[in-house]
């Protein structure tokens, strides 16, 4: 009897403990949930073009540490292009990307529902994916190993109309022309004429585009318009169906065209209209960026074949 009494008291004590603790646990969970109310609603307005622009942080120091060729390093620019391609492969709602120097802009279609249009989610995902892809792509293009990891910041900008979007991209391409023309003249004076940085700056101070063009032609025999289009116009990335003989494969294609002209938008109607990738007639020598994508897809297809055979057997 004593044993039964002891067990009965223990059972009551256990029930009381459970009854006392369980409500407190559920209350504690809900009691702290109020902190969620401090989170701001950062949902982006509907029916606007979303542009995410990333910029390299302290890239002057970074390019110097990694011995970038002046005024333009083709391989370094292609690391940027390859990283941007990785972002476009992840986000099908990016209809166009535009890059120059150490920056890239990604244009999301107006109807995108990615991450429920939350600004912070989109910004952090694109920026972090670009940064990690830059590191992954580096050894495929560059000779020197990375001395330290690069860093990029980003911003979200919204454009309500097609004209606003066109003007934004025109602004970024005009920036390429101004900066590249100056840098080309500047580094020619420093590297070939032996001027110091301060002397080159003084010589170019107050000059106009025509003056710099004349300087390049008269002193260095360079027709600025004959320089590679990637340096003068930046890189446009579009998703296209690459025509290879009788076959076609989809890939992100680098173009170096005039964004400012109306002809560009008439030629690539899929950007502003119904988003169906246009065609890209592959040249005899494919851009390496496209070739790498097609080779990767070929390897994926070959890896899928044994699995498909195994599934059907």
Automatic annotation (TrEMBL):
Q: Which InterPro entries match?
A: Thg1_C_dom, tRNAHis_GuaTrfase_cat, tRNAHis_GuaTrfase_Thg1, tRNAHis_GuaTrfase_Thg1_sf
Which residues are in the Thg1 C-terminal domain? 163-245
Enzyme Commission code: 2.7.7.79
Query: Molecular function terms in GO for this entry?
Result: GTP binding; magnesium ion binding; tRNA guanylyltransferase activity
A biological-process GO annotation: tRNA modification
Q: Which reaction does it catalyse?
A: a 5'-end ribonucleotide-tRNA(His) + GTP + ATP + H2O = a 5'-end phospho-guanosine-ribonucleotide-tRNA(His) + AMP + 2 diphosphate + H(+)
Its cofactor is: Mg(2+)
Q: What are the tRNAHis guanylyltransferase catalytic domain coordinates in residue numbering? A: 32-160
**Keywords of this entry:** GTP-binding, Magnesium, Metal-binding, Nucleotide-binding, Nucleotidyltransferase, Transferase, tRNA processing
Q: Which family does it belong to?
A: Belongs to the tRNA(His) guanylyltransferase family.
User: What protein name does the entry list?
Assistant: Probable tRNA(His) guanylyltransferase
Question: Where does this protein come from, organism-wise?
Answer: Drosophila erecta (Fruit fly)
